[in-house]
Write a structure and sequence with these properties.
With 483 residues, the chain is of the alpha+beta class. The protein is built from 14 helices and 23 strands. α2 packs across α6 (177-190). The protein has helices at 31-38, 42-59, 87-111, 116-119, 126-129, 177-190, 192-197, 206-215, 240-250, 306-311, 329-332, 335-343, 360-368, 394-406, and strands at residues 62-64, 73-75, 78-85, 151-160, 163-170, 228-231, 253-255, 260-263, 266-271, 274-277, 280-283, 316-318, 350-351, 355-356, 373-377, 386-388, 411-415, 421-426, 429-438, 440-444, 447-450, 455-458, 474-480. The chain is globular and about 65 Å long. The strands form six sheets. Strands 3-23-22-19-18 form a five-stranded mixed β-sheet. Strands 13-5-4-20-21 form a five-stranded mixed β-sheet.
Length: 483
Amino acid sequence: MLASKIETMEKPNIFDEMTGVNGDDIRAPYTDFNAWFDGEDPARLRKKQREAEDLFRLTGITFNVYGRAAASERLIPFDIVPRVISGREWARLSRGIEQRVRAINAFLYDIYHRQEIVRAGRLPAEMIAKNAAFLPQMMGVSPAGGVYTHIVGIDLVRTGPDEFYVLEDNARTPSGVSYMLENRETMLQMFPELFARNRVLPVSNYPKMLRRSLAACAPAATSDKPTVAVLTPGIYNSAYYEHSFLADKMGVELVEGHDLRVVDGRVAMRTTEGYKAIDVLYRRVDDDYLDPLNFNPDSQLGVPGIMDVYKAGGITIANAPGTGIADDKAIYSYMPDIVEFYTGEKAILQNVPTWRCSEPDSLAYVLDNLSELVVKEVHGSGGYGMLIGPTATKKDIETFRRKLKLRPSNYIAQPTLSLSTVPIFTRSGLAPRHVDLRPFVLVSPDRIDITPGGLTRVALKKGSLVVNSSQGGGTKDTWVLEE
């Protein structure tokens, strides 16, 4: 049986999504994959792994790593062992994801209007007023269709058969969907026989759904079929491959700030026939760089005056400016209350327990237990600016202790969870590695679409909990089986 071939982790009682807690049995979603793998020649699989890497290199699937003197462009490692989720598991996850995304949109509308959640005492006023991601310029602004977060990525972790937690909400410009799509395309090319014996829900229609969803959010100024474009900071951005990939797959223009200008109250892009008005701009530029007239005056990445056009209803910006406050990890700690306040229901998907270091009692506990906790910056991302206590050196812990005392409100802390593992393919066979999952959600005025599966990120180093590609992690194809 395959379970006997999987190397064990150094910690007991870690749930493996293929073999369970004890590693004695193959779980139902992996039954067909297990039967296939047991009949495969390891040499053939190693060859296929190399072919997959060559295909990624040929396609140009890279990301940029800032701060590195050499080899700034890297391939994201891809593992050929899929992560398999049953239809039953996915149905529950989908309900929880949709509930959470609806609550986030309602929360964003509220804080930029009457702030009823603050009036009701469910959220401290300073969590809004003193939050760097809160944009006063958005007060009273209602986006087309009432949609703030057109594209959302909800990061999930798993600790048991039925235990899923939301690790964080990505409500600004969630990335990684291009890798989800390329991972699936690569697996279809490498192992078509696997898809013949497993009924896997498709993800290839995401670009079509994305364009439909964005077009459905066109502003009232739209007079014909909505014109959609993708705004990128340029080729040196770490996610530039994804920007160009999505524009190409949607069949829309990829533009930079210098390609755009305000013409007759509309944002227009330069074409061979003159300037053409844009109805929906899928921006991959941060708020601060979006409009030098309204935000950072030194920005060369945005469009002067675009916020004025936006507030006048002349363009839809996806995601809406100011959505970054829903990414804030201090706000995250209130999400169970936020979900209940706006939906009237208990949250289906729970948060990871979180200590807000801005609170004296919580700070005291965190300082006393740094070696056991994960500490994160409230606005941090990509695995940077964090401390993983159990694997940190004494020097790292003391450095973080000083940071916490200096700026406690800049941090939150969480327990170190026993994250689930999924096997990866190594030269010696299958080996368990920790994973997370980022499902992608599309929101339009009339519907919410959740792509089945999403992006599984995997920590390739034994025992590591860091899955970010910038920190050495890789990716997997994520399968959701039909019911």
